[in-house]
Amino acid sequence: MADQYILTEVEGSVAVLTLNRPDVLNALNIPLMDQLIETMERLDGDPAVRCMVLTGNRKAFAAGADIKEMAEASVVDMYERNNLARWQRIQRVRKPIIAAVSGFCLGGGCELAMHCDMIIAAESAQFGQPEINIGVIPGAGGTQRLSKVVGKYRAMELILTGRFFGAKEAYEMGLATRVVPTEVYLEEAVSLAKEIAERSPMAVRFAKETVLKAFESPLSEGLDYERKMFYMLFGTEDQKEGMKAFMEKRKAEYTGK
Ligand code: HXC
């Protein structure tokens, strides 16, 4: 049987996915990434699941792509493997994904966290794009996503020096949604996921898609898209239920219809 690199636990309507290569600080090899992508796509299609949490362990979320797997590769090997193209499938997951980060969150690990929709950082979290120290550059979106989040001048310094930065700095730069004590980082992420899972699943997915549109399009196009998505929600039972519940001063019960 293949190694189980992704552990999955479903708590109510929240799925917790744990990266499981602790001996190598969850270095992201190709089999792990394949298992992760397949698991996320399966959960994305499971109506019982409304939100996902992606985590590692206290010591490491992930210390990057597996250096040993790629150290001897040629350009042709890398081009043929083309494993980074598969990461785009994470970007297409429609349900929200919250990264719960403790310890090292480096290189591909930081890029993986940035594929998620929110980042809950433990006080112990250490972020960084240290690829420059091993003669390469970020390859799974780090140059683009980090620059969009923290701006050109801070991204340049971080990517060109490869220095690590802590949870507080990540929060101040807008990379982390929240910083929480290390003892409770996973509980905090799960509790946030549960809060989101109580909302209308259609509205949540539309909201995620529309916020992501802000990073892909000019303002006028994004506003147009938002307006259409807003109107579309009036075709759902959840919109009727949500507004009726407000008027009846009760909690809405959403079905995802
Ligand atoms: C393979 C890794 C690894 C990695 C750690 N390990 N990071 N193996 N790939 N990225 C392994 C080590 O070889 C070691 O295995 C074990 O994990 C424990 O690591 P140590 O180095 O002994 O731990 P420590 O001294 O605490 O140092 C922690 C560390 C250091 C500072 C995080 O491990 C480190 O610098 N790792 C590499 C970080 C990095 O450069 N990441 C970017 C990778 S490139 P053994 O068998 O020796 O005990 C990248 C490109 C992205 O991510 C492109 C797109 C995906």
Summarize the structure.
The protein has 257 residues and is of the alpha/beta class. It has 13 helices and 10 strands.
Give a written overview of the molecule:
- The chain has 257 residues and is an alpha/beta fold.
- It has 2 domains: 6-197, 2-enoyl-CoA Hydratase, Chain A, domain 1 (Alpha-Beta Complex); 201-247, Lyase 2-enoyl-coa Hydratase, Chain  A, domain 2.
- Helix content is 46%, strand content 16%.
- The chain has 13 helices and 10 strands.
- The protein has helices at residues 30-44, 67-70, 75-81, 83-86, 88-91, 108-115, 142-150, 152-161, 167-172, 185-197, 201-213, 219-232, 237-247, and strands at 6-11, 14-19, 51-55, 60-62, 97-101, 104-106, 118-122, 126-128, 165-166, 178-180.
- A 6-stranded mixed β-sheet has the order 1-2-3-5-7-10, sandwiched between helices. The chain has a 4-stranded mixed β-sheet with strand order 4-6-8-9.
- Strand 2, helix 1 (30-44) and strand 3 form a beta-alpha-beta unit.
- It is globular, with a radius of gyration of 19 Å.
- It starts with 5 loop residues before the first strand and ends in a 10-residue tail after the last helix.
- The relative contact order is 0.12.
- The mean pLDDT is 97.
- Hexanoyl-coenzyme A binds at residues 24-25, 27, 63-68, 84, 104, 106-108, 111, 130-131, 134, 138-140.
